[in-house]
Amino acid sequence: MSGGALYDDSSYDDASYDDASYDDASDGLLSLATRAAGLAGGPVTIEDDASELITYSPGQENSDDARIATILSRRVPDRYRTLLRTEHLDERLAGSSGPFYADLRGAGILPRAIMPIRAGDTAIGSIWAIVPSSPSPEQRAALEESAALLAPLLARQAERRLAADARRTAAVRALLRGGDEAVETARELPLGPGPLAVVAVRPLPSALAPGPGPYDGRCHGAYDNPYANPYDDSYAGLCAGPGGPPGDPLRRALADLDRRLSAFQPGGLSAEIDGVGYAVVPVGDEQRLLRAVGELPEVAAGVGRTVPGPGRLGRSRADAELVVRLLTRLGATRERTAHIRDVQLDALLMRTVDLAVEAGHDPLGALAELEEYDRRRGTSLLDSVDRYLAAGEDARLAARQLHVHPNTLRYRLRRAQEITGLDLSDPAAAFDIRLRLRLRALRLP
Prior knowledge:
Blueprint: H1 26-40, E1 44-48, E2 53-56, H2 65-73, H3 78-86, H4 89-95, E3 100-102, E4 112-119, E5 122-130, H5 137-177, H6 179-187, E6 196-203, H7 233-236, H8 249-262, E7 269-273, E8 276-282, H9 286-294, E9 299-303, H10 313-329, E10 337-339, H11 344-358, H12 367-377, H13 381-390, H14 395-402, H15 406-420, H16 427-441
Parallel strand pairs: 9-10
Antiparallel strand pairs: 1-2, 1-5, 3-4, 4-5, 6-8, 6-9, 7-8
Protein name: PucR C-terminal helix-turn-helix domain-containing protein
Domain CdaR GGDEF-like: 195-325
Pfam family, one: GGDEF_2
């Protein structure tokens, strides 16, 4: 979805285009975009089914903010994707086989003629042309013709992308296992010998990673070539991220990480495996790596230990997975990104909790009875104990934080001690309670 001034097609010569000359390289897609713009009478973008930018025609200089943002980020920004849903344009795209007109001037966006691109019954993309009014029969026919020319090219791109995805995923799986298999796999890849680390990424429930940097008609990044891009120029036109077009939050996050890392440490490989994104990255500057990972928005990301070579990547992978599990379980309330060394104690406690639950034990011990009492009575004795200990056993401070009178807090503490039999004045008992309260936060919901 994008915009701009009316397209000047005075230089367009239909006879100069030979349909048979088009291929799915970036130049071929650009030629088709230019042709579609000339026929439709306005500048166009061509997008995939996940609103990722494939290519765009020249003549975008006076485009509106929506198109400029789409071209710069190589995808339709979230705020405009929300508009698509509000205006029901996504539904019309899904249900249409021909072009339709959308007057979006009320939202500060120039009108669009929108044409779905289909391969059989499957929507694989769309053309967005800026037009001053509802398209004429000639313009509609031109858009339909352009979509028909684009459909086999995009379908061929998708097939190649899937093949590259399968190879990349198999390579990443082998690397993550470590050992001799990882060493042998690394020899076949543009992967540095070491040191290396594994980054694991899982999107938070509300995650929608932002788009990458300016689009220049090709794909770039540490993980696009040569292994992930075996078709060279013929593969570049779609600008696919790891595993294909990064239309979902996880793939967009991986693509974003790829671009950030390629700026200073090229030579890694990433893939989505079983709902988790993994990146195997060379570590030249660990602090820069952590900053790059930390800049990923709305994801839980874990960085494993740095290892000397691919044979030990299994350990780094286990670290990264453990960190992501921890951050996800905590709801990323404290932080969204962490290195294993920074959360090692909590990670150890989480594993302790899981082992206790697996063995049929409640890690809360005597506090479990207090938790059940609160649940049945609608009280907050356990939270009061937690706040009291966190305040350094200062009843007045804890009461202020709880917005209750100090005597009310003292009554709650007495009731808690009566129910559990624990003596809050005993340092050993207080430590036991603090530890079990931390275990409580690390339980599975």
